[in-house]
Specification:
The complex is a heterodimer of chains A (340) and B (424). Chain A is an alpha/beta fold. Chain A has helices spanning 6-20, 44-48, 60-73, 91-98, 101-104, 134-138, 151-163, 228-240, 257-267, 282-294, 317-320, 324-339; strands spanning 2-3, 24-28, 53-55, 76-80, 114-119, 144-146, 168-173, 199-200, 213-216, 222-225, 245-248, 251-253, 270-277, 303-307. In chain A, strand 6 (144-146), helix 7 and strand 7 (168-173) form a beta-alpha-beta unit. With 424 residues, chain B is an alpha/beta fold. Chain B has a 5-stranded parallel sheet, with helices on both faces. Classes of the chains: A alpha/beta (340), B alpha/beta (424).
């Protein structure tokens, strides 16, 4: 065991896979000599050489397109898109190519690539360094979407993603790279080293894709969240003294519907929290699924707490962010009749 | 900022929207098309730096002259047997196209695309590659499969989307895939295969392999970002890849001017990237072969990528869903100054004394019979729209390696619907 923050855990996961599988290659803007703008690939080129971890031109289309071709050769590339906001020029390669190869070639060609990308706000990144575009990808058939929320999960899910034979979009919540976030932006960040989830095993282990994790057991309401919002939701639940069950989805596609269903059938209430914009966000899908699977167990309308349907603002970042006030209000509303 | 008064003195700007020279009914005049003499082009050493051979991007490599002789330094000096194989393969492709186009018209499938007039750009090019070099085709390179011996009956199975279709009826007709023959699955989105080919070539180089990649796209889709991403990656990593641009003058109804042809050649795209570029008479199979072999030797000896523009003409419609008489002059095809690749090779072989008009007639008859046989055989496995050829569950297979719960649920729904829609 070693104590790691999320970046170190991701770096360690990449190193583990570079060591273990000679077909794993890492590529992306600034990931080589420099080690990535968030340091996720620091030291890897030095250890494994320039053909295993290398810089690329600034072309997301080229990065993902080349990675698809490398898959056809037999490699298992792990491209980094520097910010999820930059992924759009590569979407055709991801959606129409990587995600469809297996289907359209009836299994002759596959794309076992893992696209890593930091996403989400809370770092004063403005509208092009803060977005949460996960729903655009969960809408795509043939693509898996994975979002860790702790160092332990980050390494285990990353290794599972790289070993998976389907294309995976691995979104890293950059606000919590250094420590979990309670939603109070003016409080100093508590480093990961203060939390048990920072204990990361050496070497190879996996956290299975498609399995959610109950991070707080409770019976008053089920809170569904992923990434940064897992920690914010947990903090708000504690603050309000509500005995909520908080579920970290970890994988959006394929979704662990069983864990969700069991929990909501137990609590009869459901709050969905994500940072992404509201309309057609992944919360809409979750809300529909909970309704379809748990309608007769519901004792209150399903609530969604999300970012607003605006671009992510710079100076008004904390007015935009779905923080303690918005979540607290929704929680109180959904459990209101329990309290009276 | 100009105020209202000064503004009124400025000449009005005008937007240039390209217009092809000839529209339906127009008399075609190709006299301004620069077609150099066959054999007049120098053949640079394969080690030549791209900056020292830029003129090749604006010239046109031609081997077969007006007297049907192979001339000049680009003559690949192929033996009779290879040339006859080239001729037979191109003839077979054309016979296949004509027959399968007809099958679509008879309602046996939804769609077909011919490569009439462009056969050399895939057949001769592929013959100059090794069989284990990886091809990333666009949708008009069926010639690759013919060269590599893919059975015609498998192609027709795919075109009919029938129960023997190896792609399980999932792909639009002609979007073949053959991993075994190093033929990448054809996409319907254009030029996506370009950065993929470069990525494959990068992988081959990084593994110390000796295989190279070749990609094809049309001149129209060089406008896609993928083309430019691929050129940049190929240049940056010195990737062992051949990038073929089949300039057939038309992208459905948009002439090559909409991809920039009014200003420069497509081979010239390579100049800006520092990539070796050749421009070839695409209707001259020997020139196509020679240029490809040059580029392949270059790639195989770590001297990097080559862009080849094949100057040719799309002699037929874009697809069965297209009617070119609505937008271009019918005379264009008749007067195309570079002729027809099959006719040119045939005349060359006759000139060499190893072929005759009678033998060609016999070959054409054999090719037609072979396609007819393949169609008959494939039709036994069903034709599109007549019966449910694929087991229902195949619709949900291969989305992921393992089927997740939501697809299992949807598969159950589809099966339920099946009992209502098609009661047994």
């Amino acid at each position: 065991m070693a104590v790691m923050n999320m970046i170190e855990a991701i770096n360690n996961g990449l190193e583990t896979m570079l060591q273990r599988d000679e077909n794993v290659v890492i590529m992306g803007e600034d990931v080589g000599y420099f080690g990535g703008v968030f340091r996720a690939t620091a030291g890897l080129q030095e250890k494994f050489g320039k053909t295993r971890c290398f810089d690329t031109p600034i072309s997301e289309c080229g990065i993902i397109g080349a990675a698809v071709g490398m898959c056809a050769y037999g490699l298992r590339p792990v491209p980094e898109i520097q910010f999820a906001d930059y992924i759009y020029p590569g979407m055709d390669q991801l959606i129409s190519e990587a995600a469809r190869l297996r289907y359209r070639s009836a299994g002759e060609f596959t794309a076992p690539l893992t696209v890593r990308s930091p996403f989400g706000g809370g770092i004063f990144g403005g509208q092009t360094h803060s977005q949460s575009p996960e729903a655009m990808f969960t809408h795509v058939s043939g693509l898996k979407t994975v979002i860790p929320s702790t160092p332990y999960d980050a390494k285990g899910l990353l290794i599972a993603s790289i070993e998976d034979n389907d294309p995976v979009l691995f979104l890293e919540p950059k606000r919590i790279y250094n420590g979990p976030f309670t939603g109070y932006y003016d409080n100093p960040v508590s480093p990961w080293s203060k939390f048990a989830e920072s204990e990361v095993p050496e070497g190879h282990y996996t956290v299975p894709l498609g399995k959610a994790k109950i991070v707080r057991e409770g019976d008053a309401v089920t809170v569904l969240a992923y990434g940064t919002m897992v920690h914010v939701s947990k903090a708000v639940v504690e603050e309000h003294g509500i005995n909520a069950e908080v579920i970290d989805l970890r994988t959006l596609v394929p979704l662990d519907i069983e864990t969700i269903e069991q929990s909501v059938k137990k609590t009869g209430r459901c709050l969905i929290v994500h940072e992404a914009t509201r309309t057609s966000g992944f919360g809409a899908e979750l809300s529909a699924l909970v309704q379809e699977h748990c309608f007769y167990h519901l004792e209150a309308p399903i609530e969604r707490v999300t970012g607003f349907d605006t671009p992510y603002p710079h100076s008004l970042e904390w007015a935009y962010f779905p923080g303690p006030v918005r979540i607290g209000e929704a929680l109180e509303k959904i459990v209101g009749d329990l309290k009276s | 900022m100009a105020d209202e008064t000064t503004k009124s003195n400025l000449p009005p700007l005008t937007l240039h929207v390209p217009e092809p020279k000839f529209r339906p009914g127009d008399k075609v005049d190709y006299s301004d098309l620069e077609i150099p003499e066959a054999g007049a082009q120098a053949r640079p050493d394969i080690a030549t730096a791209p900056k020292d051979m830029r003129d090749m991007a604006y010239d046109m490599i031609r081997v077969l002259d007006d007297d049907h002789k192979a001339v000049g330094p680009w003559d690949p000096k192929l033996d009779d047997e290879t040339l006859l194989k080239m001729l037979r393969t191109m003839a077979q492709v054309r016979a296949f196209d004509d027959r399968l186009h007809r099958q679509q018209r008879q309602g046996k499938t939804s769609f077909y695309m011919k490569c009439t007039g462009e056969e050399a750009t895939s057949v001769a090019a592929t013959m100059a590659l090794h069989a284990d070099d990886m091809c990333f085709p666009s949708y008009r390179q069926q010639g690759i499969l013919f060269v590599r011996g893919y059975p015609m009956v498998e192609m027709v199975n795919q075109i009919f989307s029938n129960k023997a279709d190896k792609l399980k009826g999932r792909q639009l007709p002609i979007m073949y895939s053959s991993r075994e023959l190093n033929f990448f699955t054809v996409s319907g989105n254009l030029t996506t295969q370009y950065p993929q080919a470069v990525g494959w070539a990068m992988a081959s180089a990084s593994k110390g392999d000796s295989r190279i990649a070749a990609a094809w796209c049309g001149e129209g889709s060089t406008a896609e970002g993928d083309f430019h991403a691929a050129m940049t990656f190929a240049a940056v990593y010195n990737a062992p890849v051949i990038m073929n641009v089949v300039n057939n003058q038309w992208a459905i109804s948009s002439f090559s001017g909409f991809a920039g042809a009014e200003r420069t050649t497509f081979a010239a795209r390579g100049v800006g990237y520092g990539i070796a570029a050749l421009r070839v008479d695409g209707n001259d199979p020997l020139a196509v072969y020679a240029a490809t072999r040059w580029a392949a030797e270059r790639a195989r000896t770590n001297q990097g990528p080559t862009l080849i523009e094949h100057f040719t003409y799309r002699a037929d419609a874009h697809s069965t869903s297209d009617d070119p008489t609505a937008y271009r002059s019918a005379q264009e095809r008749e007067e195309w100054p570079l002729g027809d690749p099959i006719m040119r090779l045939k005349r060359h072989l006759i000139h060499r004394g190893v072929w005759s008009v009678e033998q060609q007639e016999q070959l054409d008859a054999e090719c037609l019979q072979a396609v007819k046989d393949a169609v008959t055989e494939a039709a036994k496995n069903g034709i599109l729209g007549h019966g449910l050829h694929q087991p229902f569950e195949t619709m949900f297979q291969d989305v992921f390696e393992e089927m997740p719960w939501h697809l299992k649920e949807q598969a159950a729904q589809a099966n339920k619907e099946r009992e209502i829609k098609w009661p047994s």
